[in-house]
Fold this protein.
Amino acid sequence: MKELYVDLGERGYPIYIGQDLLARRDLVVSKIAGKQVMIVTNTTVGPLYLEKVKALFQGFDVDTVVLPDGEQYKNLDTLNLIFDALLAAKHSRKTTLVALGGGVIGDMTGFAAACYQRGVDFIQIPTTLLSQVDSSVGGKTGVNHARGKNMIGAFHQPKLVLIDTNTLNTLPQREISAGLAEVVKYGFIRSPAFLTWLNDEMGALRDLDPGALTHAIYTSCQCKASVVAEDEKEADVRAILNFGHTFGHAIETFMGYGNWLHGEAVGAGMAMALDLSMRHGWISLPEYEWSVDLIRKAGLPVFPPEEMTPEHFIELMSVDKKVLDGSLRLVLLMSLGFAEVTGKFNSDLLQQTLGKSDN
């Protein structure tokens, strides 16, 4: 087992990474403040792991709520099902919510914990690669709105992140590739050496080699933890974690939540951000081509949907959370491994990137 710590003072917490951790009761019980536990999962993950996770909390008063599975259910209506369950079972302010699932479950459970009786504890047990390397760490919680992804939410840090890499064995290859989008992102924004390692080990990662996966997850969480410790509430540097996401969120919203997986949209979005960075001369054409090939090796798309026009992108990107005073800001690369959030990009070059397709 490997362990990391997200250093946020009194809100700091450990991240545990390894195999068979769903049996490690000793890692979780010290984080439970009261006697009540509410496990939130979905119809896909529940049948696989719910009983095992319930056993972690033997001796506590455990209730469960099982939500429908899919990004299209990450909304206020589904969120209310969590509140309904908490109130029906009379959970107090000392309850602990447990998110058992992927990024959708983690985001909604965390948001419910931030809101219920003005804030209760929660624990993240992420079961997808994407949630293990990204959404379970850092305290971003929320739901989608029809007009924009993750536009309703709160910062609320978990008490613990428990990552059992065995859960990845039940994922389809498409979900593995979607998670690799966030892994590759960390290399682009912070570590050229990690990019090189990913290029060499991509086959092993897609084949679920345990050693390669543990290293990739640990390195990704280490990167995110360091950025979050610098800027917990995304006032400045934390926004670099959104590399590729402004374009990607526009794709998800346009296509309808769930039709493109989040990681697939981020893959295409990163390729677009690389294209714009290359057009500005910040990265070279060979670096751009190598980088896009790495995204392809991960099994991800590198072009947006054919039906999306530049006008569609501009309209949807205008409600991105990085917009300040009406001005769009993007995360772009000044070099491989060094990202900046900037509004100082050439609008004509942006139009060229938005108009580029595989046709």
